[in-house]
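If you are new to this repository, start here. Below is one unmodified record pulled from the training split, so you can see the exact layout before writing a loader.
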Amino acid sequence: MKRKIQTALLAFALFLWAAAGHAQMTRLKVAYPTTVGSMGVLWVTKEGGLFDKHGLSVELIYIAGSSKIVQAMLAKEIPISEIAIPAVIQANMAGADLVMLAGPNHKPGQKLMVKPEIKSREDLKGKKLGVTRFGTSDDFLLRYILGQWGIQPDREVALIQMGGSQEILAGLSSRGIDGGMISSPLNLRALKLGFHMLVDLSAIGVDYQGAGVVTTRSYVRDQPDIIRRYLKAYVEGLHRFKSDRDFSLKVLAKYSRIAERDMLDETYQHYAVKVMPRVPYPTMKGIQLVLDEIGSRNPKAREISPGSLVELAYLKEIESSGFIKNLYER
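And here is the target side for that same chain:
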């Protein structure tokens, strides 16, 4: 009888401990705009239980297109998201207070995939090219490369909002558009459908600030403890992404809904191996590139400095503590 009572008391104590731990978990909605490999760190952090480890019960929400996510953030429906710097700049020029806390994507991952009959950049004139939404990374990069080629977007080439990356692929497949911006692993699927790559944006030799951790300055001010825990989980997720290939491939397959091993391997190689650094500081040079391009169309962007778009104190604090170094040395 005594032993049964002790067992019951122990079970009750464990229940209370678990309940207390659950009560301390902070619930958090985090949005992401695409199902391509640039979201790999976020997905691995979630699937690896690293948000939970740092007391965050994170619900990942897919919202196609960064501009839609910005609307949700400004409505205070989403406190943290994984979006690229063009959306941050456009929102802030309109009066928002968005800020990037970490940004491991330093090279563009997009490829311009086109119909077989489009052989050169000159063949793009008069054609329809798909992007996810205006103001997104796809939109910025397509306008940038067209400008480098002396082709005027919206006048010589029509840019069509498709909603998401899968929708761009569907538009190509149905011949509703002549080309589109697609990232790994969907570019390989486009190849298998008979389309070809006109340009690989990762090979044009420019730094570019792609997806990263974005919130508002007011949220940073009001929730510093959540920001610290989120970033700790995130850098652990980056480490897991870079160091655990098999697990990362499974996670990429789950969220991208792609099973082909060659497509997943290319995605992993590009993001985890080639692009992402161990410490995910945003690239100031890459942010300036975006400001310069937007500034050529909107003078307000010329008044913005790259430093005003980032808040690095928390990431620096985590790095200086030795937390990230220890991840890679153990």
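Two things worth knowing about this chain: The CA atoms of residues 297 and 303 lie 13 Å apart. The first strand starts at residue 26 and ends at 32.
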